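User: Show me a protein chain along with its predicted structure.
Assistant: Here is one chain, sequence first, then structure tokens.
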Amino acid sequence: MTKFVAPDVKNFVVWDYVVFAALFLISSGIGVYFAITEKKKASSKEFLVGGKQMTCGPVALSLTASFMSAVTVLGTPSEVYRYGATFILFFIAYTFVIIFTSELFLPVFYRSGITSTYEIFYTGVVVYAPALALNQVTKFDLWGSVFATGIVCTFYCTLGGLKAVVWTDVFQMIVMLAGFLTVLIQGSITNGGPTNILETAKNGSRLRIIDFDVDPLRRHTFWTIAVGGTFTWLGIYGVNQSTIQRCISCKSEKQAKLALYLNLLGLWVILVCAVFSGLVMYTHYKNCDPWTAGFISAPVQLMPYFVMDIFSTMPGLPGLFVACAFSGTLSTVAASINALATVTFEDFVKSCFPNLSENLNTWISKGLCIVFGVVCTSMAVAASLMGGVVQASLSIHGMCGGPMLGLFTLGIVFPCSNWKGAIGGLLTGIVLSFLVGIGAFIYPAPSSKALPLSLSTANCTVNTTEVLTTLVPTLPPLRPPLADSWYSLSYLYFSAVGCLTCIIVGLLISFVTGPQKGENIKPVLIRPICNLFCFWSKRCKRICWCGENDLHKDSATKSETDETLKNGVNKEMQNHLPGFNPHEKSYTNVSLDTESYF
């Protein structure tokens, strides 16, 4: 095996540490600020959902910062470097996801507060990824970095609650953009400008974006990203506690929707920055790939290695990039800690101990933040055993988020489903999605389905002083029959498998055991699918809703029927719901007199 001489890449200097430390200090300072200024409003509602007084601007930036984590900063450029710019097609998936979330799920969740808790596993990946980057560029102890991240997140989340999390996310979003822009500007200057970068990427087959192959075993095609990516990210956005909690913290349903659509712009910007960073990195290393040459041990280390290379004479800027990676992590982890604390408090503590004082409720909420901070940090150990950070994170979301997405879709879109169908569908979806996910982890798909692009070491300096070792050829391990079919399914379809299985099995069980009747359903909590296909006939709607419209049939007059909204709730009913604005057809926090958009 050929050995190569690694170039001299500098480590952190004093100014890098200063820039990096500033991120932690400012983030912690925001937590301290809200702990002091909001002391008089110390209630569990204020701590966990910001008193429902947030506006769309900071919430939109917070959503973008939380879900464009270190997985995006480190993982997406390395994906583009190895597989090409097909990843840019995720802008289609993001668009569908935001539309479905804001128009289908948000109106229901804004009124009900339904939550999910699977994100604790994903948080482990998010903590581990930037710690690995810091270990690569500074030679810091890897696990010391992991625990430092967890401690800082837990600190400001526990002190300031959701408001501190949101406003810290705003600051961290600015840091992320600054980090990306410095890399893009310096990388473009070093490699001959954007024109040369795109030309080199084209010659290296990195710009072959559109591939309409319908084979579900192919890792990334137009269909796996547009369809599978939509299912995966809908599980992340549509039924994720971190997303819903931020939206619920908004003053009104209208502001919550605006936050989601503004967030879509942020997702597009970060995606473009990450993809172009991968193309810049490929241009720089097209003739001497540091991963193939053995200069780094994993593809996720490509981006920090590249940063230390191009900024070797610019002290402070490598620290800015690592701060960029850690910004995504701090925002995501803090969001998860706050969300998990909210779920546990609302669903377990308040249910078991409904008569606790408000002051004790607040202290319990803060205690839960500390507990989940420790748990989320510990999950990084499990993350270290998984593969590439992008595939690992999205696989976790797919396996766990798919069945949860199916469960909520079943209840919101199909009012005829009953509790037996919901439980049966959820369990079946979990079994199938975990079966394919674990099978894919044990028996990775063959390279013919992943199609990694070629990497060269032609211009790397060969080490002639070391003795070359000869690798003894070994037989490939035996693979079961499912390894090249079911277990080779693209990781982006894991969520679709769990979701569709849950819906189909749930409907079958519901019809076999007796569908749900309309008088047992609150119309404000559903968005029946029959509204899309039976809009011309109220009788068809009534049949598809399994009697749901019978709630209004006896008292309905012609004028009242004309005023019935698409989801089956008439204006008279909505006037009795707190915070309903009949002119905007949205819900507003009735304790506030004014409304602003930022």
